[in-house]
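Format notes (please read before filing issues)

Several people have asked whether sequences and structure tokens are stored in separate files. They are not. Every record keeps both together, in the order shown below: the sequence lines, then the token lines. Line labels are part of the format and must not be stripped during preprocessing.
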Amino acid sequence: MRGDVQTIGPIGLTYSLFGGDGRSVNIFINDFAAISRLGMSRRETEESLTSSEPPRPDTRSLLNGGQYTITAALPGPFPVGLNGRTRTNQIIAAMADRLQECCEDLLSHYPAKRIGVVLGTSTTGIEEAIAPLQSRLETGEWKNDFRFSDQELGDPANFLKEYLKLEGTSYTVSTACTSGMKSIISGARMIQTGIADAVICGGADSLSRLTTNGFSSLDSVSPEPCLPFSANRRGINIGEGGALFVLSRDPGPWRLAGWGESSDAHHISSPEPSGIAAEKAVRQAFEKARLDAGDIGFVHMHGTATKLNDMMEATLVNRVFGADVPAASTKGMTGHTLGAAGAVQLAINLIAMDCGIYPPHIYDDDWDSSLQPIRLTRKQEVAERSVEHTLACCYAFGGSNAVVVAGRG
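Then the structure lines:
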């Protein structure tokens, strides 16, 4: 069935219960917060995006065996006494603090049980489990302050729900690098189907030696700051950070215009080379937003700086948008924030739209000529015209693809 059964939700909203396209419900972004290598706030992120020398991943993280790898750690410490037993939850709490005023406004309009929480993550409390596990192996016992729940994928959503004193439906999405973007899509669907009147959603991930070592074992990490779409690219830099968004039906400064999802079913870690399945997600987003490729003023690519991802994505962008649409991967600044990547990308798009700039594509300027041509943005590049809609794309292990279109409210 495709949306042919209708019902009336709380306060008289008509919505579809059976998978309709959801066009009867506008989803607005009322507020957002972001933390990454670019900065610990929206203002710092904007300053980095408009800088003549944006930050690069440069913090070295020790791997097992004494080797080092480049990572993109957060540029500043968290406030003393910030809640959260894990670093991932501390990132979430720092962002939630910046959304308090908006959340209080929501609670004045909607019951706490009508405000949901959906978060994307992949690392959750993994780093915090390493020392207790070592102690357990050495002594045979767990330390008294160790909690298995810190490692549960549901912990970040549960933490944020409790932190903001919300009572609605909450859960965590963990689909590798599409987690954060899928949480945003899931939040929009919760509103469309009447499960919630508003949703706090997004993604957060923190650095973990387990993750860094895992990607190193796949020969996927670069020994230097990553170079998306360069002839010299050698892989990713792992980063940390996140972004949270307040979604509702109430008009706001930005609108979540459309989204799409698909699956390659091709390979556990490599994308389908032609990008056909990824294109399906892009075109789903167009259909939902009632737009086409010519309406998109900026394409925020996944751009991991791995050989196969960049090849597939250049092919896809060239085929769908041509060689002239402004496009960039910001992982040359933020590193790959894994489960938070899509949320960070969307936050950067919103900031850039408000500032009238294109997010810069930072690399060594040595374009890989074997790739299909695309138009990469430059440092401090002012948008050629008012950008009304942007696209952000994520492609994950297992062939998971997710795309969102954001526009002005």
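For reference, the curators noted about this record: Confidence is low (pLDDT under 50) at residues 1-23. The CA atoms of residues 205 and 240 lie 5 Å apart.
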